[in-house]
Amino acid sequence: MPKRLYVKTYGCQMNVYDSARMAEALAPLGYVPVAEPDTADMVILNTCHIREKAAEKVYSELGRLARLKRGRAAEGHRLMIAVSGCVAQAEGEEVMRRAPSVDMVLGPQAYHRLPEMVAKVVRNSGGVIETEFPPESKFDHLPEETLVDIDGRGVSSFLTIQEGCDRFCTFCVVPYTRGAESSRPVGAIEAEARRLVALGARELTLLGQNVNAYHGLDEAGTATSLADLMRRLADVDGLWRLRYMTSHPLDMTDDLIAAHRDNDAVMPFLHLPVQSGSDRILDAMNRRHSADDYRRLIDRMRAARPDIALSSDFIIGYPGETEKDLAATLALIDEIGFAQAYSFNYSPRPGTPAAMLPNQVPDAVKRDRLAQVNAKLNAQMLAFNRALEGRRMAVLFERPGRRAGHLVGRTPYGPWAHVEAPGAMIGAVAEVEIENAALNSLTGRLAAKTVMAAHYADARA
Ligand code: SAH
Ligand code: SF4
Ligand code: F3S
Fold it and tell me: Which of 203, 333, 373, 432 qualifies as a cystine partner to 241, CB 3.0-4.6 A?
């Protein structure tokens, strides 16, 4: 009888990708993914440590799961609980101390060891922990992709090409939870891309904590840039669209900027976090660029690709942030004009240098400043979407919409469009006229029945 596996994913897209890979690693043991934990034989919480709230959510979920586990045990079933991801890496044994119902704790580099860990738990029913950074790469030991019907897979799929980070921004846990920066080889990525295309993918989002620092080796042993990798991937038959995230401004090289002009598969969208518009704060954060450097970079980006949709992350209330720093951030937002953005109140994280600083900003002040930033960003996002009204663009249909007879597809710029279209068009690109824009979505109508990938080139502004 198949065993039921419930995976709950927190945090970034890399965790979404990892969750799919863990589910695949467990498939040979008979585990099949299910959508609810209630009747599961194993639950994996794939966790995020980036902000305190994200980490605390995991413990409240573990409280609920402990009750479920007791209930299941009373019925004679065994529920195994695993905690993976960045909380697992950061807290290790502490997870089992705080939540004794947990059977396995495994860090992001140990997912290929999951089957062996399950076997150990079954054998001696004690807790098992894997949070060392193993010498072998998980990517060389995880089974090939087979799952289709799981988050992060489908017409648009995620593919992790780079992991870890060496930048050590003073607020950030990622260098500690994901380890040193490392790039997967070009050949392995291309092979995975081909398999994902065979499973139905037409668009890939290449993932990495610092994805534009990618420098994987090709077959000749030569370091390859992200732009060169995307040139290779654009030649894969059936793979039409490429995106990548998340990039650091310092690694935004000329060839990558040019790829947005020269490589038709690269979508006109860039997520490039700036975090703050104040040089004083950027310096304190160890971002190693100024607000003007960012402005110039955006100018170059727009020179290469005038219609590019820009996205960013902001941290509000970093220690020592003043009203003047906030004004600089608001001014930068005004000048750039973002199509998308994520803004967060600064959250002190254990072990990071900024958490130790004496001049923490009071919560109420942070919240008030974040509200000001969000008001501006939301207005810009809505303005960006509204400007698409009346325009025609190539939409890649991904899945059925909530309304019967409707599909959801992605515009080149990023926002999703809801369109009345036959189900057979899932996986196809068609020209859509955008009729209505809201903050988080668009509605449109099929402008032409012709279905082909090449439409993308015609849709350029
Ligand atoms: N590698 C990416 C970001 C990864 S973390 C980069 O260099 O930009 C995703 C986002 O979480 C960050 O961009 C940042 O805005 C936010 N973040 C990271 N640490 C945070 C903290 N301690 N408090 C609040 N937000 C944080
Ligand atoms: Fe964190 Fe990104 Fe800075 Fe790396 S570059 S430390 S992932 S914010
Ligand atoms: Fe969170 Fe780890 Fe991603 S801390 S944002 S899950 S890299």
Answer: 203
